[in-house]
Specification:
It catalyses: Hydrolyzes single-stranded DNA or mismatched double-stranded DNA and polynucleotides, releasing free uracil. Keywords: 4Fe-4S, DNA damage, DNA repair, Hydrolase, Iron, Iron-sulfur, Metal-binding. The protein is built from 12 helices and 6 strands. It has 275 residues and is α/β, with parallel strands linked by helices. The protein has a single domain, classed as Uracil-DNA Glycosylase, subunit E, CATH 3.40.470.10. β5 and β6 (241-246) form a beta hairpin. The longest helix has 18 residues, at 188-205. The chain is globular and about 65 Å long. It binds uracil. Uracil is lined by residues 133-137, 140, 146-147, 149, 151-152, 174, 250.
Length: 275
Amino acid sequence: MDQITEIGTILEWYLSVGVDEALSDVPIDRFETSRQALARAPAPAPERPASPASAPVSTGAQGFASRPPAAARAPAPAETAAAASARELAAACDDIAALEAAIRAFEGCPLKAGALNTVIADGTFGADLMLIGEAPGADEDRLGKPFVGRAGQLLDKMLAAIGRDRARDAYIANILFWRPPANRKPDPVETAACLPFVERLIELSKPKAILLLGATPTSALLGLGDGITRTRGRWHDWRGIPAMPTLHPAYLLRQPQAKREAWHDLLAVRRRLLD
Ligand code: URA
């Protein structure tokens, strides 16, 4: 094999394992930085508050879906020292400035070491509609804001279709604050480390309704693991706030025929916000 072919083969292999961007000229041992971050986090708290999967789901009056059977529930995010630390830190934040500072200072999510930016939220804090996606991608990581790439452009059009604008009357965040390599799905340890902060973002912003974009936020916040095409389109209860799972805009870019279902969900959101 000549040298050029050899380099090409190595680059192909890098791509296949998710290494798709050069961030630095100097190699960094990410396994070591993750080990150090986890070692710095305090020991787990003895008791864990009720997981989303065990939170009661209202039925009837508000038209919420009934509690799913055990088989349809997603596995709870991993209980780790980092998750316990995140819960403690998030609970101590009484306003958005403190919460954002706590997220930026948090070292318990291994993804932070490989990210360019911490991506927290965009739009209007306190808006009556909050949207939660999965995780930052390459564009979001570069710019430090959620949903600024192609999926974000479609999301803006979806919002405009129900008369909303992220700068004015929507607040957008993700389940993770740091980009997973090669845009892979968040793993349970990463989700557990970020989730307490996401929950606190929602609690402090106090939306009237939450739109969950895709399977990842639906599983992390509602404990529903039965596939987004089954769970979308019905209201669920998240700690007293109505939450609607819908299709992720990145999925809609790949499957434009599914926009019809997403439109149905958006209309339900618009109706609820007009109530
Ligand atoms: N997809 C997401 O889920 N979140 C983003 O911020 C961008 C793309």
